[in-house]
Amino acid sequence: MALPTLLRFISLLLVSTASLISAVPEDALVSHLPGFNGTFPSKHYAGYVTIDKNHGKNLYYYFVESERNPEKDPLVLWLNGGPGCSSFDGFVYEHGPFNFKPGGKAGSLPELLLNPYSWSKVSSIIYLDSPAGVGLSYSANKSDYITGDLKTASDSHQFLLKWFELYPEFLGNQFYISGESYAGVYVPTLSAAVVEGIKGGINPKINFKGYMVGNGVTDTVYDGNALVPFAHGMGLISDDMFQGTNVACNGSYWNPINTSCEEKLSEIDLDLQDLNIYDILEPCYYGSASSDVVSHKSKLPSSFRRLGETDRPLPVRKRMFGRAWPLWAQVMEGHVPTWPELGSPSVPCMNDEVATLWLNNEEVRSALHAQPKSVTGPWELCTDNIDFSHDAGSMIKYHKNLTVQGYRALIFSGDHDMCVPFTGTQAWTRSLGYKITDPWRPWYVAEQVSGFTQGYDKNLTFLTVKGSGHTVPEYKPQEALAFYSRWLAGLAI
């Protein structure tokens, strides 16, 4: 190459590189956060992506660059579940860059301390409030709050395409989608939408490599049949109770079809009613667990009349005894009630006071580049703003389709989670029929057994975390960072 041509090429390359570097929206830079005194270990950005200008539909994100090497480290999208729960749950309580210490006086803002087990130690993370109406996301057209699995996946895909237009320098980073709980539906459906976009030549082209699901809702039958064996294996119900229920229900607990089975399952409800469904080892923050909200016919709130509602002409069998998401894991086709709909002022057993106080402070909202409460309404951990339908069916077909195409998948469970028990997750991962490539074995952190794992063909890994509940990173932050960082790096867990 002649010298003048080479110089012109270098000049164009420098201009192109400079344009990429300056592409980051500087007005989204988070310069400070109330409650934190110090220097951020990496750059933080936050704001809205408008995915429908006509409706004024805006999805809120908080983006934390990797503390290690943001130019090369993986980029990960994080989604909390619900449906209706804000991804600030993950940011505040699980694996965000800060630990939140309650203020010294009632009503005072929390103190933010750096989190030594933040997932931003090894990756850049986008925390997304989705769908519109959840967390800090909103729409000027309230019809957008009537949504479901497929619409949420489509909207989140549009968010990603527009987000990468704002942050094109991250298009070359390996991209993963992750989440927990009802994100067991969000993650596979969004992953499928991203893959279809890649196949269809949609730009910007996302460098999607795989996904991760923690304690995720997956399939009506597998999830619905998981709790009884889990309760028996954990010593929560007696042999007689288990055997009697098994005989009465013929081993199928998710949709009882006879009175004897119903009665046996009601006995189990009574036996388990005061446990923390998210972690059977932990006490309930609000006293009694969820029994006053979702157990027993006599206590059912009026919202249960909507269970299983669907626009389809044929009827859908409804759940019995109020065994609906999230007490008895399975989510059936049709309307999915949120916790507030079920009559609970907050998520049973969970303490959300610090996040609620912080995110409803207008000074904090200004620092986060979020709209005031007058626009979005107050922030809630899990809202009833949305009318949500489960319309994507079983996730097993999504997992099968994604993994056979070579996308990596990590499916993890806290082994003391009674909300989405590992027994169901282990069963459906086995049902895919993949060859076991890494036999069941313990995995370790600091030379201590931290759980058990099994690897399958097609880059599928199933993992349990010992002594952890539904929100694994909150209960076991060190262990969660360990398996997360190893898996992202492609190393054996």
Automatic annotation (TrEMBL):
<dbReference type="InterPro" id="IPR033124">
    <property type="entry name" value="Ser_caboxypep_his_AS"/>
</dbReference>
<keyword id="KW-0645">Protease</keyword>
<keyword id="KW-0325">Glycoprotein</keyword>
<dbReference type="InterPro" id="IPR001563">
    <property type="entry name" value="Peptidase_S10"/>
</dbReference>
<dbReference type="GO" id="GO:0019748">
    <property type="term" value="P:secondary metabolic process"/>
</dbReference>
<keyword id="KW-1015">Disulfide bond</keyword>
<dbReference type="GO" id="GO:0006508">
    <property type="term" value="P:proteolysis"/>
</dbReference>
<dbReference type="InterPro" id="IPR018202">
    <property type="entry name" value="Ser_caboxypep_ser_AS"/>
</dbReference>
<dbReference type="GO" id="GO:0004185">
    <property type="term" value="F:serine-type carboxypeptidase activity"/>
</dbReference>
<protein>
    <recommendedName>
        <fullName>Carboxypeptidase</fullName>
        <ecNumber>3.4.16.-</ecNumber>
    </recommendedName>
</protein>
<dbReference type="InterPro" id="IPR029058">
    <property type="entry name" value="AB_hydrolase_fold"/>
</dbReference>
<keyword id="KW-0378">Hydrolase</keyword>
<comment type="similarity">
    <text>Belongs to the peptidase S10 family.</text>
</comment>
<feature type="signal peptide">
    <location>
        <begin position="1"/>
        <end position="23"/>
    </location>
</feature>
<dbReference type="GO" id="GO:0016747">
    <property type="term" value="F:acyltransferase activity, transferring groups other than amino-acyl groups"/>
</dbReference>
<keyword id="KW-0732">Signal</keyword>
<dbReference type="Pfam" id="PF00450">
    <property type="entry name" value="Peptidase_S10"/>
</dbReference>
<keyword id="KW-0121">Carboxypeptidase</keyword>
